[in-house]
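Sequence only, no structure available. Ideas?
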Amino acid sequence: MDMTMGPIMGWAWLLVWVLFLALLAVGVVFLVRSLTDRGDRAGSRAMAILEERFARGEIDRDEFEERKRALES
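Reply:
I predicted one. Tokens follow.
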């Protein structure tokens, strides 16, 4: 190993590794959050459609309540 670079290169490489690991951790967190939030968004979208259909009169209150219970379970 060439020692003409001095200790600064050692610190620079350490900084590069720390930044790389931090970016990797942030990426993993975002990936996990995006995978776990999908169900919540789909459920809220389904509920919004159900409420719209009820508001337009396409379904009656009994059917609305039955489907709402099914979505919540």
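The CA atoms of residues 30 and 36 lie 10 Å apart.
Hope that gets you unstuck.
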